Amino acid sequence: MSTASVPLPNWISYGVLPLLNLAVAFFISGLVVWSIGENPFEALKLLIEGALGRGEAIGFTLFYTTSFIFTGLSVAVAFHAGLFNIGSEGQAYVGGLGAALVALALDHYVPWYVTMPFAVIGAALFGAGWAFIPAWLQAKRGSHVVITTIMFNFIAAGLMVYLLVNVFIVPGKMAPETRTFLPGGQLPKLDWLMALFGMKLGPAPFNVSFIIALVMSYLVWLLIWRSKLGYEMRTLGISPSAAAYAGIPYSRTVIIAMLISGGLAGMMALNPVMGASARLQVEFVAGAGFVGIAVSLMGRSHPLGIIFSALLFGILYQGGADLSFEMPNITREMIVVIQGLVILFAGALEYMFRPAMVRIYQQFAGQKSGGK
Amino acid sequence: MTPHPAIELAGIDKSFGAVHANKNINLTVAKGSIHGIIGENGAGKSTLMSILYGFYQADRGEIRIDGKAVTIRDSQTAIASGIGMVHQHFMLVENFTVLENVMLGAEGGQLLAKGVSGARKELKRLEAEYGLDVDPDAVIEELPVGKQQRVEILKALYRGAEILILDEPTGVLTPAEADHLFRILKVLRDQGKTILLITHKLREIMAITDEVSVMRRGEMVATRRTAETTVEELAELMVGRRVLLRVEKGEAQPGKVLLSVKNLTVKDGRGVTMVDNVSFDVREGEILGIAGVAGNGQSELLEAIAGIRKPTSGEILIDGQPVAGLDPAQLRQIGLAHIPEDRHHMGLVLKFEEYENSVLGYHREPRYGRGALLDLDAIRKDAEEKIAKYDIRPPNPRLKTANFSGGNQQKIVVAREIERDPKMLIIGQPTRGVDIGAIEFIHRRIIEMREAQKAVLLVSVELDEIRSLSDRIIVMFAGKVVGEETPDAGEQTLGLMMAGAV
């Protein structure tokens, strides 16, 4: 009989098992590094130093973490309602348009803290708007949201390039990007936060979006586990027939869940667009939407888990970039392989060690009860 | 010299963590007999059979097949030892044919052709020998449940099973299908096969077994020759105390009509008419029973009344007001409670904790939270009260619902729907897969609803249940109401109506 139904205590499910998966991912990555003739321990040391060694490194790590928290939350919210939103990438891209329009409109007139709430709303509205059509098609026509959101990623990419090249481009410039926002349209860096820990941020773009991401994590937790809507979403996600029995409207719940998911993805744009480059550029999402799927999977769709797994992926991104710089043998592609291994072991092979763990745990628990 | 018994279990012991599922079990099953194993849900029957079939390994103890000690590591070794299992939930590939399913895992070589013709011949022989007629080229999903089960039996026989284990085989069958199954089992026995029948239905035990063993809380408490025992004795052995098998109730005092269904027609997604021009009334203070073989439109009728399924035409009136078109949430607000047929798919979200299920469908009521948020303290307190009142075990609102036994899961649903104090209650299969103790309890609650002058509509495929609870009985066949009877009508009369013969 399968061991999947045997309950394990939370500290094993959410502590020991993920760590074990991570350790195996690093072990295999070590073998890969070793096979190309580099010292895996040296590489690991460089990766960790590159991600956490100095204030600037930490700043970059947390900058990436911020983006991944947003997209991870986006995927998780849809997932709780039984929807697999692959479109966070495109929703974040279009969300950037919302943030940029607010910044461009207001940066001449008001300070950043006035712009910020409007930018948050703008980014969320545009991200949600981009999720609406797939949501509506799923709810009313049964078109699978996985397919439609993938398609909408491509449409978003095309649309944004068109807008940047033909509409927003600064006359006389070659780069397909908007003008640089004034300070009134930028989100300030969190150097004071780093200073509290005696560290210097340097040029790292770690900014106020991080705090917005933490607030959103709390709000998502409140939504999923404490609100009536979250209860309905979870019911629908686990058992559509029980939801129908309980009178939970399918279409409405699907559409709302996707709008929230798209909104969270859209907010991701605040971080790179207003917090780092201070302008809207092509391809600024850079795969963060897809990483969000891995982050959500690894974080068990729980905001706290998402924060930790976003941090892990932030470390891999920043440390990996540093590592490929220090060890030219380890190319950028190699780093992607290592990230892939982490996703494979932490996400896709989630249940690999579970049966063994269940047996060990049962023996242990059996001994304890036998000793009474 | 007497031949070796087909199965001997000696001192089987199995624990899961702190749960001691099987305690020192001894069992001897004679060759060529039908041996019943009976016990409430959670008594350890399924664990014991899983050990015999190699899903679990016993912590201690010995298994002897035909007098030889064997170690059954997995289902392969079980099959090699001549043990075949027919699961409660069929293990068939729905879009394969009967022949393909029977061959699955025993194809005999890399190329199919030779195996197919061999299997077809063998299947013909088995069918002829045991009267298991099934078209070998029929696709599984198009067969009725009873025939699907026959395919499961054929699968086991094809693999050379001498011992057949059937786990709750009649749970999904109509009375007629169950009778047919019993005839097949008797033929199998007469041909020398040994049959282990796991069930919690006493009637089946009395009807076809030669011997019966009773399990309670992980222990084998007694083995009797079926001819020398009674239903009352077995029930008492199972539950550990005397149980009331008949429901006591007073005279009905029906009041005004509360629920009225007029010329209701319901078509399913494929456009097939499931409910055909059905009309009836349910009054305050009465229980109207709907009898019928499963799949004759009762499920669709219930879903239409509960607002889950849109009727194609006709009217549903509550207190004289038309309600067709309202959704289940709105119907709950006007006092319609619904205990659904299938608690696993409708009544409960099995992955939820108990307290979360205790408000399913009522979670938007102000007492469970104001504004957008739920008041978890209020919900848990409410769940605890229901747990105490309905004796739901274990009494832990934070336990995952899937970890409750069938009877306790059903009590969670019953408590939720009845404690709301509705005006009307519609119930589908209130005691399917529920142990005797809980059946008694749930029947009591349903009668209490009647005595509190509520209107109750009861759908059940258990004719005994319909007859003992209802004040009036209507019979459905092929989507139509074929007649109305009183509970005093004979089983024969009702049976004929259910078969569409009247």
UniProtKB/TrEMBL annotation, chain A:
One Pfam assignment: BPD_transp_2
Keywords in alphabetical order: Cell membrane, Membrane, Transmembrane, Transmembrane helix
Presence of keyword Transmembrane helix: yes
CDD domains, alphabetized: TM_PBP1_transp_TpRbsC_like
Protein origin, superkingdom: Bacteria
Subcellular location per the Swiss-Prot or TrEMBL entry: Cell membrane
One term under GO cellular component: plasma membrane
Transmembrane segment boundaries: 12-37, 57-78, 112-133, 145-169, 204-224, 254-274, 280-297, 304-321, 333-353
Any one GO MF annotation of this record: transmembrane transporter activity
Annotated membrane topology: Multi-pass membrane protein
Signal peptide per UniProt: none
Stored InterPro entries: ABC_transp_permease
Chief localization: membrane
PANTHER family: ABC TRANSPORTER, PERMEASE PROTEIN, GUANOSINE ABC TRANSPORTER PERMEASE PROTEIN NUPP
Protein name stated in the entry: ABC transporter permease
Originating species: Endobacterium cereale
High-level lineage: Bacteria, Pseudomonadati, Pseudomonadota, Alphaproteobacteria, Hyphomicrobiales
TrEMBL record, chain B:
Keywords attached to this entry: ATP-binding, Cell membrane, Membrane, Nucleotide-binding, Repeat, Sugar transport, Translocase, Transport
Cellular localisation: Cell membrane
Domain spans labelled ABC transporter: 7-242, 259-502
Annotated InterPro entries: AAA+_ATPase, ABC_carbohydrate_import_ATPase, ABC_transporter-like_ATP-bd, ABC_transporter-like_CS, P-loop_NTPase
Predominant place of localization: membrane
One MF term in the entry's GO annotations: ATP hydrolysis activity
Membrane topology, record value: Peripheral membrane protein
GO CC annotation terms, alphabetical: plasma membrane
Family from the record: Belongs to the ABC transporter superfamily.
Protein name: ATP-binding cassette domain-containing protein
Organism this protein belongs to: Endobacterium cereale
Lineage, uppermost ranks: Bacteria, Pseudomonadati, Pseudomonadota, Alphaproteobacteria, Hyphomicrobiales
